[in-house]
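Most newcomers find our protein records easier to grasp once they have seen one. To make this concrete, we reproduce a full record directly below:

…
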Amino acid sequence: MKASLRLLTKRRFAPLFVTQMLGAFNDNLFKNAMVLFVVYTVYSDPRAETWFSAVSTGIFILPFFLLSALSGQIADQRDKAAVIRIVKAAEVAIMLVGGAGLALAWAGVAIHLFAIPLMLLALFAMGVHSTFFGPIKYAILPQHLSDDEVLGGTGLVEAGTYMAILAGTILAGLIAIEVAAVAVILIAVAGYLVSRQVPPAPPLGTIEPLDYHIIRSSIAQVRATMHIRRLFLAIVSISFFWTIGTVLFIQFPPLVKNVLEADKSVASLFLGVFSIGVAIGSVAVNRMLGGKVSARFAPASVIVMGAFVVAFHAVCLIWNSGQPVGELMSLRDFMHHQHAVVLILSLLGIAIAGGMFVVPLYAFLTTTVAKSHAARTVAANNFVNSGAMVIGSVVTLGMNFLGVAVVNQLLFAAAMCLVSAWLAWKLHCACD
């Protein structure tokens, strides 16, 4: 553990770590400021709120599906540090557009005509930003770290990412939307400045021509990766995990408002608790595995995750806010509710178990193949993950269309955990 934390003092790791944290922080500050504003201010219908939450998630994910193959090629065949600086410079421009959308929403000017479309456009662009940054943040680790540091570095990146998600999520629920409009721009500028300190990471293999054909390059990249059995199992396991995560994240804002009858500060608390839990799980599993890349705890972790989802569902079923019609509980009132502690602990359990499940699987992606192909392997994973997450969004919309209550949709996520456990067990048997 101490050895992993020492990486935070090294230039070969620290600037990347901070750049990633600032990007994740900004993503979530912007997205949650937008979603919470729309859910709590614009719409007053549970189905419309779930629809908007699902659509915004789908818009963010879509670039991963379209551009992951290209992003993996660029990351492996160009200097990764140079690509990071270009991506972070683009974030500044993106947040100028997103900030304008938030400012228009605050002013009440053309909310449906301009404000929401501008915010969704910026969200899509941030999805593009994350698509190109994602392969690099993992693939650069084997290039800058020794073999026995990769799992620890991966765990720190995941923990830092989710702590940033926590901070961005909480801040989105606490600050006014006009403040968020300015903050997202300033944070983007800070991210670009820090990114300039990432050490060079030149390509390690033969430079090949880039294939800009989205479909052909995506198929080729997945084929080049999925024939390796343990990579196939790791990628599919991660995909199922993110399908579960997508369903849960879509449900949180409307569930908090319409089932728990609480305000947006409680929605932020839920997303924050989830982020803390994943961060704890990410660091804990590295300690339990002693730095060895292994899937031996993954099956049990995801089964425990499913059990906590069922527990969370059960508490939601018996929840009674006692609020007058039309009034929402504040964070203080929520924390004084008799079932609040059990609900939060259930959510924390979901997240800790999820972090313990997914971090070793990400380490498989960058340690199974040659370093010169690490980014393309991560990109292939992102492509498959994004498809699974889009499916999760569509399934959520389908359940919503069929009238399945938000609280009962949680059981779909719990059932998916069993499939993930089976896949993780097969991975464990194939590798250990």
In short: Residues 46-77 form the longest helix (32 residues).
